[in-house]
Amino acid sequence: DQQVKQNSPSLSVQEGRISILNCDYTNSMFDYFLWYKKYPAEGPTFLISISSIKDKNEDGRFTVFLNKSAKHLSLHIVPSQPGDSAVYFCAASGARGNEKLTFGTGTRLTIIP
Amino acid sequence: KAGVTQTPRYLIKTRGQQVTLSCSPISGHRSVSWYQQTPGQGLQFLFEYFSETQRNKGNFPGRFSGRQFSNSRSEMNVSTLELGDSALYLCASSLTSGRTDTQYFGPGTRLTVL
Asked: Average of pLDDT values for A70-80?
């Protein structure tokens, strides 16, 4: 049972435009959410996180939005750059869970120059 | 500061064999977590070690085990390998075992089981 879902396996966006990556979760106990980026042959690198007490968190070109009632979060990248081409993973954790992080299956973002 | 290192980077084994993977965390980090990445499944949590003790465990069979040494280095062992164990095994380190501590990942060990 996939508790964190990224329903779009891939996404292509023109350079300079906004990239929006989506993530849905089913476990209402999740209260901390993260986005990781992964390049081939490298481990995932942390991008941005958000606690459930907030609905938005910004860090430079990256903004994460959390809609708790819809159990949905999204990552906005503005403006998109060629170096943003990577696989993006959404992850979540809950206070009573026995897993460190529960990850989604990833979305491959391709930025078209 | 050196990042998380994992050895070996690539490994080929046959069914029924066992394998040991190694992870050296960032200096000063005391928590090490292990994840399995397979196509279509994303990253799945295996277990976490903190101060040489297993703190959390994911939903994997007992063939998957681990340990942590006093210098925080960690090893993961898979016994009686199956074809389905072919995956990228990632370890991540963090300062403490806190849920909101940022985890820093190593490059992974690519295990192929023939």
From this structure: 97
